[in-house]
Every structure is written in structure tokens, then in C-alpha cells.
Amino acid sequence: MHRYSGQTRILVAVDCIIFGFDGFDIKLLVIQRGIKPEKNKWSLMGGFLQPEESPEQAANRVLKQLTGLEGVYMEQLQTFADPHRDPVERTLSIAYFALIDIHQYEKQISDEYHAEWFLLKDKPELIFDHDEMVRIAQKELRYKAALHPLLFELLPQKFTIPQLQSLYEGVYDTVFDNRNFSRKVLSTGLLIKQKEKDKMNSKKGAFYYKLDKKKYKANFQAFLNFIPNPDKFLS
Description:
Elements (H helix, E strand, L loop, with lengths): L10 E11 L4 E7 L9 E2 L1 E4 L6 H13 L5 E8 L10 E11 H4 L10 E4 L10 H18 L10 E3 H12 L5 H10 L3 E8 L7 E6 L1 H6 L17
Parallel strand pairs: 1-6
Antiparallel strand pairs: 1-2, 1-4, 2-3, 2-7, 5-6, 8-10, 9-10
């Protein structure tokens, strides 16, 4: 097979930034690295691109190895290519971020990788440039969620408005006005009110809602102004 002469081979990896929501807090899934260098230190889940794979296929393989998940929301973030990002060999990393409902999949998380969920504000220091990957992914998540109903990917099948508000407050690390948030969310027409209530967190209880999946898919790219003054959260 013909090869380009005089060129240095460079490894390509994928890294997955996996965000999850447990009904109260947004969290990040990280693992303890099993190989040198930085063995046993905290890391994003990743792996090397195989010759027959596209980057997206590799990211999906890595995600399935760790969580057993297929078909979850995942989006390419960017390529990290600093020549010194990996001390062993020159390695490019194509980073992806994924969004999952923790409760739906927590039993599938593989014990092999010693994976743990951490609050974003309490996450441990990560290896290489993985902290930078998480920071950029958070910024992208905030940007996208201010415009589109992206965060619904993190919710269980039925949820309350307070749960949804907790999710948005966690992502943006702020507190929103209850009435204004509820009014804006309900005005989108994306939610279907259920008869039953969640009475675990208050005597009065809060009605459950389900996402209208047809409207969600049809309006995913529609502008939704959930977040007042979103620019202040994007720095």
C-alpha cells in the first residue's frame, strides 16, 4: 500500500466528557486511569482510534464500554492537539460530550474502570489537558442550552419543574426565579402535564411532566430563551 514518505505517524484518540443528572445535581463521570503514565489518577474515559473507525464510532465504542449505553446524545466538541499534551507520544484527541440520565443507567457503569460521578464543582484534578476539555464542554453546554432544549436529554422520562430548574441552575451555577422559569418553560409547549405528583419533596407536591418528543424533535433547533442574559454565563 502506498504511504506518504517522510511523514511522522501521529496517534489519534477520543475522549468522552460524560455529563449526568441525578434529579438534583449535574455531575461528571470520570475514571481512574489504568495505564502509565498517570496510572490511578482521575481521567476522562477515552481510547485510541482504530484503523476501521470514524471518530464518532470510536467515541460510541468508548461510551458503550464504560456505561453500556448506545444511542445517547453525544456531540463532537473539538480537537485537542498541543504537541506536548501526552508525554508518551504525539497524540491528538477528538473530544466528545455526552448527556445521560444517571438513574437510568447507573447500574450499567462498568466496575472495571473504577468510574465515579462527581459534582462539577467538586471534581478532582484530571490528567493531561482533561480539565481544559471539561471547562470548554461546560461552556459549550451552557451556550447550547441557552438556545435549545438540550438539557432535556439529562432528564428521566417524567420529571417536575423544580427538577428541571435544579438542572439548569446546576449547569449555570446560579439561581433562577421560580415563577419566571416555570412560565418560560411551560410557554415552549414542549411539556405534557401528568396527573400524578411528586410528594417526596413537599406536602403540596409538584406535578410530573413528560417531554412531548414529537415537538422536541421538530423544534430542537428553535430559539428558546430559557436563560436571562445568557452571555454572562459564557465567559
